[in-house]
Design goal:
2 copies of one chain form a homodimer. Chain A has about 180 residues and is of the alpha/beta class. Chain A has a single domain (about 10-180), classed as 3-Layer(aba) Sandwich (Alpha/beta knot). Helices cover about 35% and strands about 20% of the residues of chain A. Chain A has a 6-stranded parallel β-sheet with strand order 3-2-1-5-4-6. A two-stranded antiparallel ribbon of chain A has the order 7-8. In chain A, a hairpin with an 8-residue loop joins strand 7 and strand 8 (about 180).
Chain lengths: ~180, ~180
């Protein structure tokens, strides 16, 4: 992360593919907010999911960044041309514990693109990916898989990341809620 | 886990509250599947989310268990009467890294109930909880928070859990998909 953050390594981008309008509005928002909260620098959304952009940007405006959201015309093509390593999270891939040390050391030198799908993922994504990575070989949630992957990539340091230009900040409490102006 | 699994400690139950019909169908399903895939033993759904039960049970039928889904009439009351420790995941709570070692040692002796909310969570949940726990103080996703919490509770061992009575099993691959009859 080059500016404002304190996480080690190069830029981490999350690309969400397979968004089904209507059905996936909330889950795509969750992917975006999880990416921001757990240390990624940017999010790519498909044109079909462009309506989610404002929701994620609104959270960044209030709780801080930097975190960029963009909507490439052809995300699959952008994945194929990414100048860095590409990881695709899928229940069919290799166990996360086996591959994350190598991915982490690569991310110290080159940007990392993390692709998460919904239902059907085009075959090209498996082919473009340098690693197909499974957070369990069980069906569950691309949001959960992204969260565990980022927590392991950053070894928990993402939880202490400080966000710049926030309007407000939450102060941890044993019970109740405390939010202060930042 | 008492039968079929290999995770240490007592029973872990996940309770999903705050389900908004229509809007939260997918996210409640993701909470349920994440609970199952990442080592919990059971899921409680609110009556409003009862329609999600079949989806989660269908995955358990195909990919194995044990994993129980139930729909208590009054989940908030059940939380208050739970015979074990209660953790509520909320961005307003104490940092997960600070509290998880104590929660883990408690779970070796007594069952653990993990409550995850959606939008508005009733004040009683904060009061009933022995720990209000934050997976970052940033707004993101109850699915992501649950995933990171369970991965840290079980220290990654949940990823190697073997499921009983599965019809099929995914064999990890560098690329492509391989599914075999179990």
């Amino acid at each position: 992360m080059s500016d404002g953050g304190s996480l080690p390594g190069e830029r981490v981008v999350v690309c969400r593919i397979g968004h089904r309008p209507g059905r996936d509005e909330r889950t795509t928002t969750h992917v975006g907010l999880t990416a921001r909260a757990l240390g990624a620098d940017a999010l790519w959304l498909e044109p079909a999911a462009a309506g989610r952009r404002a929701t994620v940007e609104d959270i960044t405006d209030r709780f801080g960044g930097p975190f960029e959201v963009s909507v490439p015309d052809d995300p699959i093509r952008r994945i194929g041309r990414f100048d860095g390593r590409v990881v695709h999270l899928t229940m069919y891939g290799e166990p996360v514990a086996d591959v994350v040390p190598d991915i982490r050391s690569g991310q110290r030198e080159r940007p990392l693109l993390v692709v998460v799908g919904g239902g059907k993922v085009p075959r090209q994504v498996y082919d473009h990916a340098d690693h197909n990575v499974a957070v369990t070989s069980q069906p569950h949630s691309e949001i959960a898989a992204l969260a565990v992957f980022l927590d392991r990539l950053f070894e928990g340091r993402e939880l202490d990341r400080r966000f710049a230009d926030a309007d407000r900040r939450v102060i941890p409490q044993e019970a109740g809620k405390r939010v202060v102006d930042a």
